[in-house]
Amino acid sequence: MLIIAFGIMALVGTLTVVNGIDNNFSAGLRSLGSNKFSFKRYENNFLQGNRHHRRGRKKINPRISYRDAISFKKSFKDKQAKVSISFFAGMDVEVKSDDKKSDPQYNVFGIDENYMDVQAIEVEKGKVFSIKDIENNRPYALIGQDLRRELFKDINPLQKEIIIKGNRFKVIGVLPHKASTFGGSENNKILIPLNLARSIFPNAGNYNINVSVRDKNKYEYLVSQAVSMMRKIRKLRPVEANNFGINRSDKLEKELKKVSGTLRMFAFIIGLITILGSSIALMNIMLVSVTERTREIGIRKAIGANNFLVLLQFLIETLLITFLGGIIGIIFGLMIGFLVAKLMKMPFSMPWDALGIAIFVIFVVAIISGLYPAYKASRLNPIQALRYE
Q1: Distances (CA, A) of 302 to 60, 295, 315
Q2: CB within 8 A of 159, min separation 6: which ones?
Q3: Do 236 and 279 reside in the same domain of the chain?
Q4: At what angle do helices 249-292 and 294-302 cross, to 10 degrees?
Q5: Distance (Å, rounded) from C-alpha 374 to C-alpha 264?
Q6: Does the global pTM surpass 0.90?
Q7: Are residues 177 and 290 in the same domain?
């Protein structure tokens, strides 16, 4: 039972962890949203990295400047699309509030009035930036859950002041908790108005342009129009390749499915190898059991048991051992998946597909491991079996 339990635990545990990673990827993709695309310095490619090489040389794209981003936002006008500009202003920033000081672990982003809508982000408490807040550069901030816990653990953070790089900001909203996605935490963010962020962090100059499309049917058309507009802003000739990256939600989905499929395949192979070893061990144990109980089999046959009854006895024993071990393995496998999800700060969900695979594997292992020893027991000659010591 322990041998089978270990094999099933490995299968269910690995598939549960992969299922959690897959769900985490999907949550990250949902946070990006469907029918969205963005322009960045480089195109994200989860399978090949961010840099592209041509003829053995690294392709280096110029940064997307504030001028590029503003020009695109002003020029790209369509009722079915909304454009947002943002940039990563500062990393590992220290934040102060009254007499408290945080660890230098926060990421500051400068955003415009459309950012929250385009990224489909809602605040847990408070409100988002209005157009007036952005236009007038009001010193307001939206904070993540990490900063809330560190500086405002037992008090309401709304309307409290925080100090970033010597500049005072009033907290007007708290961002909701999010699981870590794509290797980065979503809870250590601080969002401030775009131009204020530019004045505080003047050296950060790589801007992101995000576009959300309301009408699915116009998605391809708007992507092509946006690319043409961006090429025009970057002054590219028709024969020149794009010197910027475009990240499409549909392409990201395909890449994430490839990553998820690869992880699932490797997890399944590891689990099957473990199960194969367990089934061989179980078969050997049952063969030893047949040898040890040769005299018992001879007595049963002598008093009237036929081959089928002896075969059924050993097959049922194998099935019981396998299914009891399988139940133990499933329970411990789910516990491993739950603990890994907690350690990796991922959402845990019941892996029904992994449980279905585990039950099928249990049944197959029981039949394969039990059939040959049971058949061998049923074919024993009763006279020779009675003489066996």
Answers
A1: 85, 10, 20
A2: 170, 171, 172
A3: no
A4: 70
A5: 35
A6: no
A7: no
